[in-house]
Write a structure and sequence with these properties.
- It is a single chain.
- The protein has 316 residues and is of the alpha+beta class.
- It folds into 3 domains: 1-32, no CATH class; 41-125, Immunoglobulin-like (Sandwich); 129-300, Glucose Permease (Domain IIA) (Distorted Sandwich), CATH 2.70.70.10.
- The protein is 15% helix and 39% strand.
- The protein has 5 helices and 22 strands.
- The strands form 4 sheets. Strands 11, 14, 15, 16, 17, 18, 19, 20, 21 and 22 form a 10-stranded antiparallel sheet that branches.
- A hairpin with a 6-residue loop joins β8 (99-107) and β9.
- The chain is globular, with a radius of gyration of 30 Å.
- The N and C termini lie far apart (70 Å).
Length: 316
Amino acid sequence: MFSKILWLFFLPFPVLAGFFCPSCAADLSPILPASQPPIVSVKVLPEPIFRGAPGRVLVAGLPADAAVSGSFRDAPIFFFDNKGVMVGLFGADIMLKPGEYPLTVTYGSGSAAETKTVTVSVTDKSYGVRDIKVPQSQVDLSPEDLERVRVERIAVTKALNFKSPARLWSGEFIEPVRGRINSSFGRQTRLNGVLNARPHAGADYLVGEGTPVAAPADGVVILTGNHFFAGNSVYIDHGQGLISMYFHLSKIDAVEGQSIKRGEILGLVGKTGRVTGAHLHYGIYINGARIDPPVFRQMTATLAGDPYLPESALYD
């Protein structure tokens, strides 16, 4: 009996622990911290944003399969992945009054969905005034011309409200033509001496008639036609509410429904519509917001450099 007790005394401690208390082995395992939900950060760039400028909202920290959506001023924001960060584009329309506006982001699904709201500060910007003289018949329209403009506006409004959910473009936008911008985006127009409250919603490139016009990015042609003010026009859907337009063409080569690639020729520069000379009017809309095209092009060039968001960028 004494020898059995002595044998047990010299057994290693873990064996003794298991011998006397089989459940004690679990007590000796390391205590792991409870799993924590991922930290999701939301940031708007640039901040502040001036009226007529494009913006982007970055959402980092989401699982790869997480759903994410957003809205700004009742317009939807669609997201795409950029190096593991979800990016959504929005715009501060050229006519938007300076102030602070909420932007919401919702991620997750069902009962696990969460919504964060950030404040977008929109500042004023002076774009200047341009003087244009045209035949008075192009200002005081006849009943026939008014009806034509009304019908054309319906078709254009339908095109601008088109929102395909898929992103059709990638990479940096290119310029549709190479030339000097004669009349920049945002300027008010003094037409035959009378100031028009509506600002110029595009950039006018002063290039010769017949100059080829290239698509700045991949997309689908959603509208072509000859319009009273814009002349021969082409509208391209780039997906997720991003639409570009090209006015006053002498010739249209693009066809409605055509998938068009970056650099592909869509038409030739002309002087159709209400113009004083040959040039290309180039416009960009983001979910209905009229945006400065050169500034938007610059933003597409910087998207690849957007970093992951640090914790200091969190918005609660």
